[in-house]
Amino acid sequence: MAAATESVGFIREIECGGSVLRLHQDLVGDVGCVVWDAALVLGRFLENETFFKSGYWSCGKRVIELGSGTGAVGLMAALLGADATITDLPKCLPLMEKNIEANKDILTAANKALKIKAKVLIWGQDVSVFKPCPDVILMADLIYYKESLDDLVTTVTDLSEDDTVILMSYEIRTTGDKEQTYKLFFDKMESHFNSYTVEFDDLDETCRSEDIKIVFFKLKK
């Protein structure tokens, strides 16, 4: 996959909105502690003028990223102007906060204010502290374990209202029971949401792969 990024030790540099984010990673940690390719593809897609017209993110869009890990996608949304909240398990909170602090200057310069915060959000638990519902929910490569799917779908549903747009990227993997896990996830989501898969040609040509998909979801009416 072609991408305008590079790794420097434990730091991942990502171009976005004319600036460069520097993201700390924990290479010996769990799945959420590095910047995955699906996160890069989703983050770059946020700059797509076909789907998001000029000023889309800077007009007060409230964004929540689930399973943020390093916070990459949420930070990219914030750099583009969104009012973003990046969320994950308690063990990931220090890394998310570290990456906000590391990029505070460029985030503040871009928006004249720091428009991002990190919070703990455990899937399946009460989400009332995150209300009113966000305008956009971001999810990058979260379909890992069958055991977590019910809680993930519950959280996405609880955070959604009629106008909420959900953007999800995932990398197609065929090892183990991954294909069955994907099918189970989409079956559960289709009980509540309509979906649309973005065409490959609509993805950023510098940051895309045939193995990485982006899907839009919206609540069924």
Automatic annotation (TrEMBL):
GO annotations of cellular component type: cytosol; protein-containing complex
SUPFAM superfamilies xrefs: S-adenosyl-L-methionine-dependent methyltransferases (SSF53335)
Gene3D superfamilies in the cross-refs: Vaccinia Virus protein VP39
Alphabetical list of Pfam families matching this protein: Methyltransf_16
Name the UniProt record assigns to this protein: Methyltransferase small domain-containing protein
Biological source species: Amphimedon queenslandica
